[in-house]
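## Example record

The block below lists the input lines for one assembly entry, exactly as stored, with component labels intact.
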Amino acid sequence: MEQKAYHLIIIGGGPAGLSAAVAAYDAGERSILILERDTRLGGILNQCIHNGFGLHTFQEELTGPEYAQRFIDQVKDRNIDYKLDTMVLSISKGEGNAKQVVAVNEADGLMQLTADALVLAMGCRERSRGALNIPGFRPAGIFSAGTAQRLVNIEGYLPGRRVVILGSGDIGLIMARRMTLEGAKVLVCAELMPYSGGLKRNIVQCLDDFDIPLKLSHTVVRIEGKERVEAVVIAEVGPDRKPIKGTEERYECDTLLLSVGLLPENELTIGLEADMSRVTNGPLVNESLETSIPGVFAAGNVLHVHDLVDYVSEEAHLAGESAAAYIASLEAGNGPVPHAGVLITFSGGVRYTVPATADVSRIEKWLKIRYRVGDVMTNRVVSLYLNGNRVLTKKRRVMAPGEMEELVLLKKQVEEYPVVESMEIRIEEDKA
Amino acid sequence: MVDVVIIGAGVTGCAVARFLSAYKGSFVVMERNEDVCTGTSKANSAIIHAGFDAAHGSLMAKYNILGNRMYPALSKELDFAYKNNGSLVLALSDEDIPKLEALMENGIKNGVQGLEIVDKKRLKELEPSVGHVPVAALYAPTAGIVCPFGATIAFAENACANGVEFCFDTEVKGITPGTDDEGKPCWVIQTAEGAVRTRAVVNAAGVYSDILHNMVSSQKIQIIPRKGDYLLLDRRTGGYVKHTVFQVPGKYGKGVLVSPTVHGNTIIGPTAEDIDDKEGVDTTSEGFDDLMEKAGLAFDDLPLRDVITSFAGLRAHEARHDFILGEVADAPLFFDCAGIESPGLTAAPAIGEEIAREVAEKLGLPANEGFVATRKGFTDPKSMSQEELSALIARSPEYGRIVCRCEQVSEGEIREAIRRPIGARSLDGVKRRVRAGMGRCQAGFCSPRIMDILAEEWGVDVADITKSGGHSEVIVGFVKDRM
Amino acid sequence: MKTVNLTCIGCPLGCQLEVMMEGEKILMVTGNTCQRGEAYARKEVTDPTRIMTSSVRVYGSVAGERMVPVKTASDIPKGKTMEVAASLRGVSVPCPVNIGDVVIRNVAGTGVDMIATKNVL
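Predicted structure tokens for the full assembly:
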């Protein structure tokens, strides 16, 4: 069995893994290996052939594959090692600070790899029908939106001709347009919540442009057809999100696409026994994006589901730099730097923050705190309190669960707090 | 002209075929669907009952006990997953304790070994996740769990290796008495492909067994499809329960159970609802609510957020609630295996052995000297040591290419599932053999690749690949093909 | 006089815009919260445009790829979107293809080229 040691192993060669690799390299680290389970680098971006990526990172609108190629080129320019078609079977703590990675592929067979640091960049998967308990039959023709996207954009297959979509997250909206452009008829997009989780731009350009109705507060109550989907029945839901009798509408169709949420893919992380968040389903990390296991960092959708890839790249850049710094500290004989973080608490509708803890003494220039709210809210003030003192405020005209929010705390704003005992984000009504 | 036609490739039909293949003769299994194990055998609790609840003196009790005792050795002989995990029937209040005592008494009469009523303290030791409500339990150490598909395909493959022919997508349209070339009586079986003459018929048609029976007999039977909804939880819940945990029986059967599966998932089910539609495997939200409520009586912290899929199965319920087994009085050489509902999976090998013996005796079939009683299961990289796995991948690199991420199933395993003598022809066929697509993403990531492999192996267009046979094609065409 | 209703895409607020028009002339934009909303409305009612993306078949791919994704090199009139999509039917290009390669010139008479957005070997 092949046994090899690297300073840094990055699990996943999608946008997060690629960005982390480049950042670690640019921070001086040279012993890096990216492990990618698919046949090419770029991850899910390869099937996201629509445009709208990269406005923040490259100040231009790119398609998914174009955005991925920019990072793939950077990895190749730096001669960073990567292995494709390689599945990581397990990760575990080794001796001392070492981490063990067991992976498999056709060419190398089973590999036992060792690293000082890991960046977890495995991305996420889609929630399936099963996780929703949609009643009815189980015929062919029920796809998660991402599976349909792969079938259409990578394989050139048409999964159906008359389509109902459940869920108005961005992937569902994007697929409504895609199916239309590829020759299918999209009948309706139903959304359980009273608001869409997708970007306004996508609602307009993917639904309105093609006269596809969006039915908010609606869900699928029945799937008909024993072999292939023959019809889908949707109904309005009340405030308790339960279907209201008598509001059923039946759509004859051959396909139901589900765009009902993404789940960070953390089986390896759980196997490593890292502390996990019940809200994000990702690991709990500190300001360096380090998990509860020293030397194991996480970024991108494995950490929390993002809506923009630009933010994934930016976050993973930090994870790559942090991993390089961790390794440099080990190399210098200093061992892992002790961490004295406080839990970031929150109130007023924040669902979670990334990072979950922060050691402000380790902020180099600024600390970016990303968070999501649990409901649509308008005219709010978001504040950050250190030791009970308000150090930062930001006015928000509107916030929605589908759009990630951020607060940036500058180093100079924390300098007058040598000892931070508490850190809190509060959302309050804007009375001004 | 053949000796025996077995109608139905569920666990019972395949078990009959397997035991019949120990005799010399020509045997054909006819199945209306595209694969083995697509009806009642596919969607059930996947458990091997100890045998304490079937009424004493019934066929159910007899074959339950016999089958239960056969599984440990059979699972080794035929290389399928089985585990003797024991079961518990919970009393939810003191009033239930007499019911436990009655069950135990019935079980002892049936011949169940090792039954014991345990108090709350001992129950907690045996099964720490049990909630605060249950007060006592009947412990049955001989109960087990099995992969129903694994057992069925093992019976089928072994039968096939011993010369039994399997005809899929072959629905029996009619059965009439006829004569063979020598003028002796035989049965004529009508299918869409034409007529087949056979000396004997075994009716193992599950929820359709009444229709077949009633074609040949004046003593009519009626099989009522009794639907049961199930929830299946992520493998990460493995170990939530160690035993199969029942509640004291109610009007509609054994009540909601929570059990581990042999693959490490947790299963919750079934509901019980009598329906008319013999294909009515649609789930309902009322069913889900019912399951969660009832299972919640026994456990305080069921990990319901880890549900990865739900499904419904139909039990072939007969009004007298017993198996109907053996030669039909007014239809010589027509053998029923009808009304096979719970504990049918447990009873299947015992029924198979007995019916095969009866049929062989009546037909005067000699022993098959070439009979091979053992069968090698699917290559299972997960059960291998690192050295063994490395050697396998060096020999056959496709075992190093993981296609299904969630269950870590390699291309090699998928190709093997397709290439075996009774090979997978659909996505569900692959899933049931080697678990690709069975995991938490429910085939979201791997189905495009498995479709390609299926198309390549069978030499067909990918547009013809189905989810589960018939007209369950996965894709309908190609992008822009009708623009 | 007619009224055109639009949803602003500038931010999550998604203001419901009303544009009052006399023929081609915009009389008034209402419902917007900010200046960007008015600018969007004016463009959207007079000259709505989109980037259109899709994919076309490839042949001779050593990597075993079947499709290459494509996009219009610049905006096309929104009303031409489906026409452009239909014109990609049956198109097949030889590998290798590189990002930026022109796959179809002047697609559907828009004056805009369709270009590849992925390297396919």
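Chain B touches chain C at residues 479-481, 483 (CB under 8 Å). Residues 191 and 213 of chain B are 16 Å apart (CA to CA).
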